[in-house]
Amino acid sequence: MNAPVEDPSVLAARSQLPGDPPPSGLTPEEFRAVAEAVRWAPSIHNSQPWRLRPLGDGLAIVEDLGRSLPVIDPFGRDRMISCGAALFNARVAMRALGHLPTVEILPDPAEPTLVGTVRSTGYRQPAPGDLAMHRSIPRRRTHRRVYRSHVIAEEDLLDLRQAVAAEGARLSVTEPAVRRHLVDLLRRAVRAQAEDAELRREVERWVRRDAADAEAGDGIPLAALGTSPYPVDSLVHGGLAGVPDAEDIEAELARSTLLVISTRGDTPRDWVLAGTALERLLLAATAGGLVATFAQQALQDRAVRVEVTEVLGIWGHPQVLFRVGRALVEAPRTPRRPLEQLFE
Ligand SMILES: Cc1cc2nc3c(=O)[nH]c(=O)nc-3n(C[C@H](O)[C@H](O)[C@H](O)COP(=O)(O)O)c2cc1C
Question: Is residue 286 located within the same domain as residue 317?
Answer without folding.
Answer: yes
